Input
Amino acid sequence: MPDSEIPTAKPAATLPLPLNGVRVLDATHIVAGPFCSLILADMGAEVIKIERPRTGDLARGRGPFIGDAETGQVSSRFLGVNRNKKSVTLDLRNPVCKTAFENLVANSDVLLDNWGPGAFRRLGLGYDRLGEINPRLIYAEITGYGDSDGARGPYSNWPANNLAIQAMSGWMEITGEPDGRPQAVGDNMGDSVPGVWAALSIVLALETRRQTGQGQHVDVAMYDCMASHVISNMNAYQATGQIPGRTRQGSLGPGLVFRAADGYVIMAGVRSPQRLAALWDLVERSDLPTQDERYLQQFPDADFVFDQVIPAIESWSSVRPKWEVAGKLTEIGFSMGVTQSVADLAGCPQLEARGMYTDTEDTLGGTFRSLATPIRLTGCESAPAGAPPTLGEHNAEILCTLGGLTPEQLSELAAEGAV
Output
């Protein structure tokens, strides 16, 4: 093809975010629900938080806090998962507020709730009623153990939280010191993992609605979500009948952890004889494989690894910085990582290069840095970075339009403490 006929690449147009035009009523609190709606908001949805008057989302009252008692305080826990949202306060036990809420439902695409099994049904707002108000509504409900007709089990009425769900779903039984007590993963994984699954479920239900015009009830159980993430252990159990546990031998499958001068490194993945030979050359202990062939085995017995292999590596690694250790072992083919603290993550050049930090207003005149949603739609415009809302900040904007209230009604409700 002549040069003159070769098509030239044109700059791609900036595409809109995928959820532009989608309105979400976010009747959630703490982590699981707000984490879900954060993903939707970052992807362009209009997210309206429905909060309790006076107190709002319970996370607003939980520290650590930004600011002080004199200048004002705001919860860092709240700031981190509530950017790009609006806030409306409504007491749904009040008939006028309930009518306003039903008007919002009629004008929205999604309702998200994580107040526990049956919470909205007890208010006369179960899916049977919500579907009458808006047949196109996606009602996504996050509960501990599931809450939909035909899919309730013996635990469905139990309350749930992060730690309870980590324990019930098997995570704690495979986490911790060998032969020690079960331990939780040190963050709210029992909340944030279900939040991700809920966001995916909502997007899938929206696609079904696009095809059919019909909304539906989306039943997200935290237990189901977390159990699905022990898939490797479940598959191994199905194959062998052996229950994975916190044993020395069991800990060798994922990798070896050993000390550097300023922390720890992890050697993960395949430990082939060739790579292990190169390792012993690197640490100037090439004599070891000639003494015992187990030094070239990926899965020797646990006592040998902990009593012989790791100390031999640490005689070299413990006097060198962790990044140097990881780098040199990466060069000879190992999959390496270093253990990092949250402080390391907060200043990580890789995360910075990936755009994984978001700076928003902190509602006190400063800024707050949080982690971005890790979705990379390279043809779309950037996610917004709107400030988390103050409590009831958008009452007039939302309730006197979509909610159908008059300014006078809103003033009366405010005087009663119902908004």
The chain has a mean pLDDT of 94. The CA atoms of residues 194 and 225 lie 5 Å apart. The longest helix spans residues 189-212.
